[in-house]
Amino acid sequence: MNKITYHKEGDYLIPDLILENSNKDYRIGKYGRLRLRLNYIKEYKKGLYTELMINGTLSKHLSDIEESAIERIDTIINQLAKSENINEDLKSNDQLAWVQAMNNIKNRAEEIVYNKIIYM
Prior knowledge:
The protein is mainly alpha-helical.
């Protein structure tokens, strides 16, 4: 049986509560931070935000978003590059055109991920 311990602060007894998942370090990069940017999840996904905060799983959720976004972007980039014939031959023959094409593809892939994963 779990016993709750308390510590005294002034005239009050405060329970010593620790979230179970608070000790884990999750990798939260660009896409996970975008999920929180401008309080998006707080304003538009209030139920989800409240559930994640109560359960102590917000960091894990953001880490999962980060992983999903990276995987999806890599997949989309590879598919678009293949369908548009952006390959190593172009890279060796006209490096600037290759860089422009890959940047264009990356921007399109990120836009898709923003709409399908980050802001859904």
